Structure formats: structure tokens, C-alpha cells
Amino acid sequence: MRKVLIGMLVLLVVVAGVVYYALSNLDEIVKEVIEKTGTSVLGTPVTVQSVDIAVSEGRGTIKGLSVANPPGYSSEPAFAFAEITIDIASVRVIERIYAEAPEIRLESKGAQSNLKTLLDNISETRGGDPNAADPEQP
Prior knowledge:
Elements: H1 2-24, H2 26-42, E1 46-47, E2 50-54, E3 59-68, E4 77-90, E5 93-104, E6 108-109, E7 112-113, H3 114-126
Antiparallel strand pairs: 1-3, 2-3, 3-4, 4-5, 6-7
């Protein structure tokens, strides 16, 4: 019985440590996920200057989000936002999204454009039509 209690106590300490680590590094974790996932899905570099998640306030802020143009287009970003703030009312309800200083750059090369290329990259990543509804969404 004593070994079971010690085992449960050790497990509790480990879980508490993991939760503490995740919460204390949440901003950096989210920043890395945005950059890695965005780059993978869009096929072009996605960078973020900083992320500030305020769990107790239900708010998240992304500063300096930039999506590079696909190869063959200018070196200027296709998208850039000075700041994006999301207020969350609950797990499934976004109350407000505020984007500060958005820049969207459309460049054409014949029938193709930089934005269409990004959509095509998303389509290839998802294995289908980028405009189709997500089958996992209710």
C-alpha cells in the first residue's frame, strides 16, 4: 500500500512539473507551433516576433506575424500583421479578433498569383480543395 501511495505521489509531482513547464513556456511553445506549422502548410517561411498568452484573461496576442511570398515572387511578405489579438469567451467561442496594421500583398504572374500559390500549397498539404469545408468540423 505504501509503494502505491509513493508511486501516486511521484506521478502527481511529475504531472505538476509538466503542467508548470507548459504554462511557464506557453508563449514560446505557441510561437514555435505557429512558425513550424505555418511554414509546413504554406510551403513558405512563417515568422512571429512574439506571443503573449494570458490564460487567466482568455486572451492571446501574436506580434510581428509574417508570411513570406512563395518562391518566384518578391522578397516582400505576402501577409504581415503588426499585432493580432484574440479574446476567447470559452473553449469554443472566440469573442473578438483584432488585427493591427495588416498588409496583404497580391502579385500576379499571368494566371497565377502569390496568394493562389499559397492556397495551392494548403491544398497539397491537406490533400484536397483548400476551399472545401473541414470534414473534422461539426
